[in-house]
Task: structure prediction
Amino acid sequence: MKRRTKEQIRKLMLTIGMSIVAVFWMMPVAAGFFTSFKSNQEVKMFSEYKNIIPRTWTLDNYQYVLNYAALPIQKLLLNSFIVCIACVVFTLVLCTLSAYAFERFDFPKKETLFWILFALSAIPNVVALVPQYSMYSSMGWINQLPSIIAPNIADVFSIYLIRQFMKGIPKELDECAKIDGANELTILRKIIVPLLTPVLTMVAIFKFSDVWNDFLWPSIAISTPDHYTITPALNLLNNAYRDTGRVERSLASCVLAMIPTLIIFIIFRKRFLEGLDITAGIKG
Amino acid sequence: MKKRILSVVLATVLAVSICACGKTSGGGTAGSASNSTSSSGTGVVNLTYWTLFTGDDGKNMDAIVKKFNDSHPDIKVTHVAMDAMTDLYVKLPMVAGNDSQAPDIAVVWSTFIPYLVEKKAIQPIEMITDTEPKLADENFTSSDLVHYNGNRYGAMLDFPSVSMYANKDLIAKYDPDIISDNVITWDEVFDLASKLKAAGVDGDIKALASGAGASNDIEQNFLAAGKNYTEDGKTLTLTEEDLSNAMGYFKKLNDEGGFMAEDADAFGLFTQGKAVLCTGGTWNMNAAKDSGINFVELPPVQVDASNVVTNAVAHTFVLPQRSYTDEKKKAVATFITWFEDNAILWAQAGSVVANKNVSSSDEFKKMPQYLFSTLAKQAVPNYLYLSIAEDALTNYGWQPVYNHISVDDYSKAVIAKIKSSVAAQ
Amino acid sequence: MKEATEKRHFHINRKYLIPILFLLPQLIVFSIFNLFPDIAGIYAAFTKWDLGSTPIWIGLNNLKTILTDQSSLFYWDFRWGLENTVVFVLITVPFRILIPLLLAVALSQKFPGRGLFQVIFYVPSLLSLSVVMISWNYMFNPNYGIINTYFHLGTLSWTSQVPYNWIALIIITVWWGTGVNMIILQSALAGVPQELLEAAKIDGANATQRFLHISLPCIRFPLSYVITVSIIAEFNVWGQPYMFNNGGPIIGMTNSYAHQSNLMLMQIIRDVGFKGSFGSNPGIASAMSLILGGLIVVISIIQVRLMHENAED
Result:
């Protein structure tokens, strides 16, 4: 009885401690969110009013951002979605195939090849930017969405993550299936992939948000607004506001840019975190 | 369920990718304006129009373009705004000569014409302007700004100039004399600062804030002192002493408590009534109007009251390097001429228009920037490596004012950086 | 005898054919879209290039300039940039490992609100650079920002005073990067066999001992991965210092060149390589990236080797 209460107190302390940290953690996002509904005067008076939550809520900032004719928000969001989903799908397919090859087979210099690939991935992106532009230019892909999809899909880091997870799937399962007459591809499809769900979700979420937030290359490769993705477009908007100090407009555009990634994360979070818990033996 | 989602997603992605890959140049998804030289089959000529008008300026230009499109059903102009330094001037050379990617018209700063010509990114505009008497050189102020190496490269829109917004109420309260001749000199600013100090408000209200940025304001000071970066356009003749003098005024003002605090939001201070004077540009007119302050737009602080200048460049139309069909040539000529005729619309954003017909019209005289345009002469920093110089100035910002570095060391650093970067070209 | 060897030879080849087929799609895509531009970029390090025209081979000149020519601005930019970057890595990476680790340990236990906290701590990692910097610039704003107002710091300028700019950048970077590492470490901790922990508990080991001697060794590989990826990420830092204070206040002068407090190497590479006007020098930028990239690769390999030395791969 005493032990259980001690346990409960400990858990309560944990919750309280976490809550305090979490409040500070969320502050920038929360402040940004609430400020996007403030008028410019209220923002500037913060040192006097000291209020995070607006006294008068206004949608002016959002109206301005959404009506900014040069950047059709709906088109931007659509482009970003198309690019991100394409990247996720291609990455999952290519990297799972490779992870399978590295993890379930043996061939000469296997690990050396892997680490060479890993090392090559560590080369800073800047090195490749200008040659990439020339290359895509001659392929006719400049100002087209494939040019921002292609560089993002052969990702060695994802292979690493998937491999690690695959190590935990017993090889006996493979062998059983083989005895039943399955070939390697079927084993992958029917046995391994279903068990890889947690790590695949993790890779998908990472890749989605990385590509969503990617800004350097898309801003170079794309030059007309209807092909832009959202992050470089918002950066353009923000440059425009910085001079006149309208931070509340910048924040409104930030909120708009955040929403899709947040939604995706929330949708898939349950399955992903369940996967973590199941592995640990903790029941929901 | 998951499998179903996956297959739907896959199908969508494949479908869209095929659409995107299918069209070779300029197509993309349906409904976009393409860069292609062909018309879309109904006799409409499509023009792609790249400018550096992001922000409030951009909104104004969008409205003007829309007006043009509505009144000219056979031409469709698509306005694309992008950041000048990081986008426009990078992309123009990159797409030069490529008809499917290069725009049909662009707006750049006149000071970048030499650079763009060297990079073969633009071509002479004579083939357009020679066909339209309205676009002849005589119709523009300072038309020499768009000539280079014997050719004419541009048709100017306006002169974005450094100006200063003055809070009339605060001036009336603390130092009404300085505004009597509509020109404010540095001596008068120092005077204002001491009057604010005497009134005990200098902690809260600053005499001057820099909304135009260090690069513009320092240039303004040495231009006002009669100096410039270069005499022949290419060799740097600006000395460390010139820079130290230019920066010195600001340092002195800050030492006397009259300059804005480090990292202050200059325009924020002005709109809150915490700065009497705020440098900015003709491009800030809309923000100033919105601020609710009783203001007047004046030339920036002058060194010499008898030689009132403003640090200005010209915005100009240019022709990117590409081929034009006869249809396109006509469409471009129509657009540029229409714009110049209707430049009063552009003036509504606060610009000092270049077209003489408009700048001398009655409507223009009613605009808040008219006073400014009559008072100050344009002084253009015409240096081939202007971008390098302005980068260096922006990089070191106001650091000597706030004592991170001495003024002389600052000047040495700026000049050294400019020379070093130019030498590496 | 001859037949037997032939059969064996054929058998081995076929065995390798299948994994290679699985690898091929990713390798092809990687070679075309990642490797080829990288190699072209490395080649650029040995050229003088103008972004439009063709590159001119100049051999080791760029590297010589950056590494030895003390009269050149590029030498000092490179040196100070590299110094700042190394210091930045040395400070932020430990925080980016320890804090997520602590959070992961805490979140491995069941307590009220756990799911919500997982989301809260991860969300910053989902945000893009612009969003992060706009929000934090607003937080650190000396006139109307939350930090100065709530902590009564007056108009302290975080962007232009020396210890504060570093503190701010470290806070922002750790805040941004914790989420990802936390998730990976949490899933790694979830993989530690419960039986080992139970056995240790019975043997009388307390929580700390169980963690240090059982959990940590078990998560050694994901931990090494997280360390490597974090090191690589922080060596590549440019966005935060650039959008925060564009390199920061000047703290010294040499040869008339000014030394800025938090100017990072990648920012210099971007500046030098990508300017829409005179002033860009992609050859030098590529040379700098080459050295930076080489450094990153070497450090990553050393770090990975160190952590894997006792295990077979």
